[in-house]
Specification:
With 192 residues, the protein is an alpha/beta fold. The chain is built from nine helices and five strands. It binds BIS(adenosine)-5'-pentaphosphate and magnesium ion.
């Protein structure tokens, strides 16, 4: 099972991917988490992306493609995975198709978490309060504006790209976390 989670910053991609991961026992691949770990570990990748991420801009497609290619060939991805934060533009969506062809897999479900842009600021600031141990450099209100702008310009066009795919569904991300989760489970056909 290969599931793509799309949605603006703070829409709940990470939150919902965690639930799906537990439910289906497939890994949650968050490109943002992978890059943040690289920054923390001071790897070459981390040093390359640190400033770009702190500014709320997208990292280059080539860098991200290498990250994804390396990750999906690992053993734990054999039965599938959840993509959170990738693809993030049309070019990445096309590269993903090529990567999946290479490993003989295809996308099973594409979920767009639909949220009101006005709610994102309060969600991001409450995430910081919930989890002060891992305050993100890009969670300031100024950088959030840039992240939302990048989303609107680069990522939002993916809705058009995927909307005619029979496996695409837009789910209302403004409901409670548990209701969103239930709607996702229904769409994935894994509700109890
Ligand atoms: P990334 O880490 O992907 O961040 P993001 O897209 O900005 O999204 P967030 O992680 O902030 O939000 P989320 O949707 O996961 O929401 P969450 O569940 O945490 O990317 C960061 C950066 O990395 C990018 O800016 C870029 O630089 C780089 N990058 C990553 N991937 C890339 C790529 N493919 N190409 C190029 N660059 C890339 O929820 C947020 C808060 O809301 C939490 O407090 C949560 O408890 C709360 N919440 C969740 N759901 C609900 C709900 N239904 N009701 C109320 N509160 C809710
Ligand atoms: Mg996230």
């Amino acid at each position: 099972m290969i599931i793509i989670l799309l949605g603006p910053p703070g829409s709940g991609k990470g939150t919902q991917a965690n639930f799906i991961q537990k439910r289906l026992n497939i890994p949650h691949l968050s490109t943002g988490d992978i890059l943040r770990k690289a920054i923390k570990d001071r790897t070459e990748l981390g040093i390359t992306v640190e400033k770009i991420m702190a500014n709320g801009e997208l990292v280059s497609d080539e860098v991200i493609l290498n990250v994804i290619r390396d990750r999906v060939i690992q053993d734990d991805c054999k039965s599938g995975f959840i993509l959170d934060g990738y693809p993030r533009n049309i070019k990445q969506a096309k590269s993903l198709n090529i990567v999946l062809e290479e490993i003989n897999k295809e996308i099973n479900k594409i979920i767009l978490l639909d949220v009101n842009f006005d709610s994102l600021k309060s969600r991001i600031s409450s995430r910081n309060k919930e989890n002060t141990a891992e305050t993100r450099a890009d969670d300031t209100s100024e950088v959030l504006i840039k992240r939302v702008e990048e989303y609107k310009n680069q990522t939002a066009p993916l809705e058009n790209y995927y909307k005619n795919n029979k496996n695409f569904n837009k789910i209302n991300g403004m409901e409670s976390i548990s209701d969103v989760s239930l709607n996702i489970e229904n769409f994935l056909d894994i509700a109890n």
